[in-house]
Specification:
There is one protein chain. With 217 residues, this protein is an alpha/beta fold. It has one domain: Alanine racemase (TIM Barrel, Alpha-Beta Barrel). Helices cover 42% and strands 15% of the residues. Strands 7-6-5-4-3-2-1-8 form an 8-stranded parallel β-sheet. The structure holds pyridoxal-5'-phosphate (PLP). Pyridoxal-5'-phosphate binds next to strand 8 and helix 9. Pyridoxal-5'-phosphate (PLP) binds next to strand 8 and helix 9.
Amino acid sequence: MGLTDITARIRAAEAAQGRVAGSVTLIAVSKVQPLPRVEAVLTEGHRIFGENYVQETAAKWPAFRARFDGVAVHMIGPLQTNKAKQALDLFDAIHTLDRPSLADRLARLVQARGACPDLFVQVNTGAEPQKAGVLPEALDGFIATARALDLRLTGLMCIPPEAEDPAPHFAQLAGMAARNGLDGLSMGMSGDFETAIAHGATHVRVGSAIFGARSTG
Ligand SMILES: *Cc1c(COP(=O)(O)O)cnc(C)c1O
């Protein structure tokens, strides 16, 4: 466990698939972790982090950005439309674009700023009622809607159902991305990132395996 170990496992998984070393981006998920743990990983040289909450990110990352160069923070939690503007100030990427109203709001804001974060469409591959994400059968239409708004999409993201084998969900996401001409695949967490890399993940979101268990969240 820890950054060095997870990075080594990612490099090994890339090599096992014949993929270029470094082709998988590690997003270190720092939500609700004590600040000293996050600082330790920054000091080790890591710069790409994931957060789930706008409020927490606003409280935490401006100070770290002032002290460490080259930090990128990715939004991986549900994003309320009324927090979209603040999110664009805080995040370099958003992995949870999941509905037309949010696409609409982001498109307007992005147009006004002339800059767009990397955007991933979250897909509810397990069609779980409690989970966010576009349903697989609605995905192609949603992507067309987002593109019609001039949103430049980077890829797709999923969180497979907890009790299921994640592999078919990763394979499904990869197929949907290929079909829509999207290169980015945000999939794989502490328990399954190697499986995700085997299915083509470009971004893995690993929290507890780097930082230790979270007390909440
Ligand atoms: C918390 C979270 C993660 C990290 O989970 P771990 O199991 O701690 O690696 C990844 N993705 C999302 C969307 C999360 O909310």
